[in-house]
């Protein structure tokens, strides 16, 4: 296995054992400030599908680096038939959880750079916080190339990732050594490299820096008693370039 994928496996294993990825504090709707990004992402996917005027019943979708499959459930909720949803992930323990949570879906343990799916078979390919997890630019480029190969003409490559400027994070690997965990990637130049093969269809900033989340959802809690008011303020703030943490891109293949 390549060094970068070995590093990934090594940093994800201890964090998974600690329950980080399915602990309710990580992604649960009841944790309002953490869930802000989740909700914004889901709304952006809905908006993108709406803008395309797609019928969910007709869609074939795939997530590269699907982890334990949390985004795949968004596709089922959209009404996309289960046999038209594929998740690809190479970490065995994530795959095991994804299959347990979503037994009806096609979840494959593979390197997402070689999915084994037919070319021009997908309407939407999602790459959610994968490029920042992979540090090697060549691996990132190969993932994008595979996504492009999979897309039908008019299909969308949806990328959500950290904005450049977000501090690089480190973590302990299985041997207790400190290694890079994630590193923000500039996505726009990746699309520029794709030249005339498509265009950016829709994009938006989202997420809110932790201090601001704390301000809107905890410190101002008494003033902003209505949940809708808290959300609205937080979402408005997350449109500001210095306040947001992530960027959503939907790139349309010609
Ligand atoms: C930060 S996690 C995000 C998981 C998922 N997309 C989500 O949002 O919940 C990044 C995932 O990408 C996976 N990944 C990175 N490179 C991969 C590759 N070449 N093939 C398959 N999975 C890969 C990692 O194993 C990890 O599960």
What features would you describe in this structure?
The chain has 254 residues and is α/β, with parallel strands linked by helices. It has one domain (3-207, 245-253): Rossmann fold (3-Layer(aba) Sandwich). The protein is built from 9 helices and 9 strands. Helix 8 (210-219) packs antiparallel against helix 9 (227-237). The radius of gyration is 18 Å and the shape is globular. S-adenosylmethionine is lined by residues 8, 65-67, 70-71, 88-91, 94, 111-113, 128-130, 133-134. The site of S-adenosylmethionine has 19 residues, from strand 2.
Observed structural traits:
single chain, 254 residues, alpha/beta, Rossmann fold, seven-stranded mixed sheet, 9 helices, binds S-adenosylmethionine
List the SSEs and their pairings.
Blueprint: H1 3-17, H2 24-27, H3 32-52, E1 61-64, H4 72-78, E2 85-89, H5 92-101, E3 106-109, E4 122-128, H6 137-150, E5 151-162, E6 169-172, E7 178-182, H7 188-193, E8 198-206, H8 210-219, H9 227-237, E9 246-253
Parallel strand pairs: 1-2, 1-4, 2-3, 4-5
Antiparallel strand pairs: 5-9, 6-7, 8-9
The protein binds S-adenosylmethionine.
Residues 8, 65-67, 70-71, 88-91, 94, 111-113, 128-130, 133-134 line the site of S-adenosylmethionine.
Domain tally: 1
What is the CATH T-level topology?
Rossmann fold
Sheet with most strands: strand arrangement: 3-2-1-4-5-9-8
Q: What hetero molecules are in the model?
A: S-adenosylmethionine
* Mean pLDDT level: 91
What overall form do the CA principal axes indicate? globular
Task: Indicate the proportion of strand residues.
Answer: 15-25%
The helix count comes to: 9
Structural class based on helices, strands and sheet pairing: alpha/beta
CATH C-level: Alpha Beta
Unreliable residue runs: none
Sheet with most strands: 7 strands, mixed
- SSE order: HHHEHEHEEHEEEHEHHE
CATH architecture tag: 3-Layer(aba) Sandwich
The number of strands is 9
Q: Can you say what the CATH homologous superfamily is? A: Vaccinia Virus protein VP39
